[in-house]
Amino acid sequence: MAPRPTWKGYLRLSLVSCPVRLYPATTRSERVSFHLLNPKTHNRIELRPHDPATDQEIPRDQLVRGYEFDKGRYVVVDDAEIEALRIESSETIDLVRFVDDEEIDPIYFATPYYIAPDGEIATETFCVIMEAMREAHKAGIGRVVLSTREHPVLLAPRRRGMLLMTLRSAEEVRDDREIFADLENVKVDQEMVEMARRIIEQKSGPFEAEELTGDRYQAALRELVAGKVHGEKPASPKAAARPTNVVNLMDALKRSLAADEGKGPAPSRKAPRRAAQGRAPGTRRRRSAK
């Protein structure tokens, strides 16, 4: 069953627009989650809102939002006032600029959404915009309001539809100069770089999303929970193996190169398939020689 859309509005290119819907492109439904319990009764704990000054419990449907403008002083903003606070991007994703998506540093990528036309009448307009972007090899930049925030977004064709990626604003990205300052004047041995490059080549292969399937830690959690449900005693934990410190880098590179000789990358779990039309924002494409 298709997920419920998280946003409905319009996609606009200049004077052309069509109604669209946004859907979450990822899910966490398979993750193991825990509840907090009373250690004596194993009853689930309820976290009830209360006023710490009067110890009065307040029903959740009576709570109001407040912004702390000074220590201990709040201004109340109600739902109707928030709902009335609408700007253009609350209802419309206006594509104001088009870029090569490979120009965008992946550090700005935040949350992915699928975007689809809202209704049959919108389909033709949506597809015309999508195919024009595909043929131009461009991604669109716009803005949209989600969860009381306006987000810059990147919109790009993806297979038979389009993917919208919210982008982090520039002020959210930390400057890396101080973090990488110690690396600026490091001189490396070119022979060791060449050996490391050969190791990388031996392990190189095509990207296969199927190989990202699985979470060993979540699998271990499920095994632990399933065993306890059946009254089994948990197995003694095994300490994870830690890599040893490299004392002689050249020697470690030589041994690694010898160990990986002839192995190549791990075989793909899936037979090769035809390349999908379009690509996710941030993926590189080969340019034909002119």
Overall description:
Strand 11 and strand 12 (161-167) form a beta hairpin. The chain has six helices and twelve strands. It is an alpha+beta fold and 290 residues long. The strands form three sheets. It has an eight-stranded mixed beta sheet. The protein has helices at residues 79-84, 88-91, 120-136, 190-202, 216-229, 249-260, and strands spanning 7-13, 16-24, 50-51, 56-57, 65-70, 73-77, 92-94, 97-99, 109-117, 139-146, 149-158, 161-167. The protein has a domain at 9-25 and 87-171: Ku70, Chain: A, Domain 2 (Beta Barrel). The two termini are 46 Å apart.
User: What is the first-to-last residue Cα distance?
Assistant: 46 Å
Q: Structural class from helices and strands?
A: alpha+beta
**Topology as a string of helices (H) and strands (E):** EEEEEEHHEEEHEEEHHH
CATH-derived architecture of the domain at 9-25 and 87-171: Beta Barrel
Shape: extended
Which strand order spans the largest sheet, edge to edge or round the barrel? Answer: 7-1-2-9-12-11-10-8
The CATH topology of the domain at 9-25 and 87-171 corresponds to Ku70, Chain: A, Domain 2
What proportion of the residues is helical, as a percent range? 10-25%
Average residue-wise pLDDT: 84
Which regions contain 5 or more consecutive residues with pLDDT less than 50?
271-279, 284-290
